[in-house]
């Protein structure tokens, strides 16, 4: 008996192509989120590799993240990565970052408390207390030019960069962490 030929339906190429493209995007997104180069993975690695930051006051999510990264870059001695967190990308960021690393890098490897002042929607004054050295550093976290949180770095003079702020209390939380003007 001769074989009967049956015609198979023609595949819907546009629908199949769209489905394959969507699948490729989903798989690529999942792999990127799990890759060692993703922001989430880098943050987790940094978090595991450093002393936890102690927090006083009321940080916003953005101010807390940029201050935590600032302390990590200080502890790592990475002036280049610290300068990348600068709100202004001018000439002062790199020398300021080098000054901060030199002045506070060793102390940032130990216990650090960040005391957050003001309400933190677009700008927040933060005082860093370095427990091992007794040093104190005032920084300002703010929304930068690209709408991402950044740190003001305009202290290219080493003595200015390492100067203890005159208004801060001796211990974190001493003024209620509400305003630097109180």
Outline:
The protein is α+β, with helices and mostly antiparallel strands.
Secondary-structure map:
Elements: H1 13-34, H2 39-49, E1 53-57, H3 61-76, H4 79-83, H5 93-104, E2 112-116, E3 123-130, E4 136-143, E5 149-151, H6 158-162
Structure commentary:
There is one protein chain. Helices cover 39% and strands 16% of the residues. The chain is α+β, with helices and mostly antiparallel strands. A hairpin with a 5-residue loop joins strand 3 (123-130) and strand 4.
Distance between the termini: 100 Å
**What fraction of residues sit in β-strands?**
15-25%
Low-confidence stretches: 17-38, 178-182
Give, in order, the helices and strands.
HHEHHHEEEEH
> Radius of gyration over alpha carbons?
25 Å
Coarse structural class: alpha+beta
Q: Please count the beta strands (DSSP E, at least 2 residues each).
A: 5
For this entry, give a set of tags:
elongated; five-stranded mixed β-sheet; alpha+beta; 6 helices; disordered C terminus; 182 residues
